[in-house]
Structures are given as structure tokens and as C-alpha cells.
């Protein structure tokens, strides 16, 4: 006797199709995840290898290359297929950030922190003043026509804890202000190049303080500045100037009192947190003691560089 044979119902077929679709989706997602992890592993491996190349060059030449293309004696940094580098540094090339990127991901590390992080490189900047925070001494800071020397003084208002102080002596007429000056010495500036400097100043009496000479000597020019700044007794104010150097590396930056009328023996003017960087951007103060920063040479007696700090 013949028996009737029944096929799958529409519902059963739909269930099978849905199950197959789910399994296929899981397989595709898993495969994509494996591919992505493999790409990340390649990026991180490239970063470590390139960082090793850069550290070897720094050990040999006492500075990092000025660009990725200049690394490895002009051969550039080695990279896997699909990997591109973002190399961020600035003169005097004492620090760098290196990012490795492919079509989907980007990871970076820095010379001061070998931890690999996801994302692009932060901006690396420099402070060319060798004694910007006056921590160890007042070296490099001079007075205008005063019989009193500029001395290091502990203060509360500076993030470094110290300032260069000029105290009035017997003659108020000789008491004018403080200058930071470089003549063919550290920091050496490049002729015909734009720089921006900033610092904070405090006076013991309410006064007006002007920038005497932000331009470099030998034909330099001032682009813009904070101009004459009014101070209240004991309250720090920021001054800044953007200037272009002249025909050589001689330069001078100064903050001077517009008048000494009413000033008496014991009154003072102080400066600290001196920042000098290439370009026209005003940066928040930082030096080799700041987070992620390092000194190019001796601590508190050399230029420094590191990531840009938030204002």
C-alpha cells in the first residue's frame, strides 16, 4: 500500500533559512574580527620596529631625525604593506610622536612613553629657553642699567615655584626691568624665522609694563604683541610677542616698567614661566619638568620639548 510523502512546510523552510543566515552572519563577523585584530597587530608591530629605529638613530646622533623620510640615513622608516606613518617632532628634535595608520585604524606612541595608544599623534612643541622656570638659578636674566643683580626668588604665583626678581636699590632711575638675551648662544635662533614668546610678570606696585624689544637684534621685526600691560601689586599678568629674527641669531626679549615714579627701595619686578617657540602660536607654559616633556640637555639648563598642553 502506497504511503503519502510529505515535504517541508513553508514555516520549516523559513526556519532553516533563518538559521543558515544567522550562522553565516556569525562566521562573517568572526572572520572580520580576526582580520581587524591581525591589522592592529601589524600596526603595533610596525610601531615598535620603527620606534627601535628612531631610538638607535638618537643614540648615534644625539637627536631624532627631522622627518620620517630622513630616518635611517634617508631610507625612511620600514613599514608593512598598507601602513603609513605620521611622524611629529620639532626642533631641536629631542622628542617625537609616531603614529601608524591603515585604512581602518591608527595607533601611536611617543619617545617619552612607549605605551601604544589608539588614535593620532598629539602636537609636539618646544620651549627654546634653557632656564624658563628659574628653578636652579637666574642665569640668563639681566637687568637694565641697574646696580642690583637679578636673583632667583621663591614665589607662589609661578607653576615652577620660582621667578627672576629685580629689586630696586638706592636709585629708582636705574631700575627699569628684566631682559632675557641670547647672542650666538643658547638658545640659538634661526635668522629670518618667526618665533613667539610669552612669560608672566609681577610687580610689587601697580604699574604699566611694556615689552622693550621682542624683535631680534640685527634687523628683526615685531609682528604682534600684548603691548603695554597694566599690573596690580602682586598679581601676575601674561605678556607675549611674535617676532621675526634678523640676519643672525642675536636676540633680546625684555619686560620693562613704563615709569618708576613713586617706586621706593625694596620694590621689585619678577618674571617666570618663559616660553619661546617657533611659529606664531601662543602655547601654554611647559618645560622639561612638565608631564610628557623632557630636557634636550641638562635639567633646567637646556631647551625642552613635549606634547602641547591645554590652555
Verbal overview:
With 311 residues, this protein is an alpha+beta fold. The chain has 2 domains: 39-122, Pantoate--beta-alanine Ligase, Chain: A,domain 2, CATH 3.30.1300; 141-288, Sandwich (Jelly Rolls). Helix content is 18%, strand content 32%. The protein has 2 helices and 18 strands. It has helices spanning 10-61, 71-74; strands spanning 84-89, 96-101, 106-110, 113-118, 124-127, 141-143, 151-154, 162-167, 177-182, 194-203, 207-211, 221-225, 229-231, 237-244, 251-257, 268-278, 294-295, 304-307. A 6-stranded antiparallel beta sheet has the order 7-8-16-10-14-12, with no helix packed on it. The chain has a 5-stranded antiparallel beta sheet with strand order 6-9-15-11-13, with no helix packed on it. The protein has a 4-stranded antiparallel beta sheet with strand order 1-2-3-4, with helices on one face. A hairpin with an 8-residue loop joins strand 17 and strand 18. The protein is elongated, with a radius of gyration of 30 Å. The protein starts with 9 loop residues before the first helix and ends with a strand.
Amino acid at each position: 500500500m502506497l504511503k503519502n510523502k510529505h515535504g517541508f512546510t513553508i514555516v520549516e523552510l523559513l526556519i532553516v533559512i533563518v538559521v543558515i543566515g544567522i550562522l553565516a552572519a556569525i562566521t562573517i563577523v568572526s572572520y572580520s574580527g580576526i582580520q581587524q585584530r591581525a591589522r592592529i597587530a601589524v600596526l603595533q608591530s610596525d610601531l615598535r620596529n620603527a620606534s627601535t629605529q628612531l631610538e638607535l638613530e638618537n643614540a648615534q646622533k644625539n637627536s631624532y631625525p627631522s622627518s620620517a623620510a630622513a630616518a635611517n640615513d634617508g631610507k625612511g622608516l620600514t613599514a608593512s604593506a598598507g601602513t603609513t606613518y605620521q611622524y611629529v617632532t620639532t626642533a631641536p628634535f629631542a622628542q617625537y610622536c609616531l603614529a601608524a595608520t591603515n585604512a581602518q585604524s591608527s595607533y601611536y606612541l611617543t619617545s617619552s612613553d612607549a605605551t601604544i595608544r589608539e588614535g593620532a599623534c598629539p602636537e609636539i612643541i618646544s620651549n627654546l629657553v634653557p632656564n624658563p622656570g628659574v628653578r636652579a638659578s637666574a642665569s640668563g636674566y639681566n637687568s637694565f642699567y641697574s646696580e642690583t643683580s637679578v636673583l632667583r626668588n621663591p614665589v607662589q604665583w609661578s607653576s615652577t615655584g620660582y621667578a627672576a626678581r629685580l629689586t630696586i636699590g638706592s636709585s629708582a632711575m636705574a631700575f627699569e626691568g628684566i631682559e632675557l638675551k641670547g647672542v650666538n648662544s643658547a638658545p640659538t635662533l634661526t635668522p629670518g624665522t618667526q618665533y613667539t614668546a610669552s612669560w608672566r610678570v609681577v610687580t610689587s606696585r601697580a604699574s604699566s609694563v611694556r615689552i622693550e624689544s621682542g624683535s631680534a637684534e640685527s634687523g628683526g621685526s615685531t609682528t604682534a604683541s600684548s603691548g603695554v600691560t597694566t599690573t596690580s601689586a602682586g598679581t601676575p599678568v601674561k605678556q607675549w610677542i611674535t617676532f621675526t629674527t634678523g640676519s643672525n641669531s642675536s636676540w633680546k626679549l625684555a619686560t620693562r616698567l613704563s615709569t618708576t615714579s613713586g617706586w621706593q627701595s625694596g620694590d621689585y619686578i619678577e618674571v617666570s614661566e618663559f616660553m619661546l617657540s617657533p611659529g606664531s602660536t601662543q602655547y601654554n607654559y611647559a618645560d622639561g619638568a612638565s608631564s610628557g616633556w623632557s630636557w634636550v640637555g641638562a635639567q633646567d639648563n637646556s631647551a625642552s620639548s613635549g606634547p602641547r598642553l591645554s590652555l
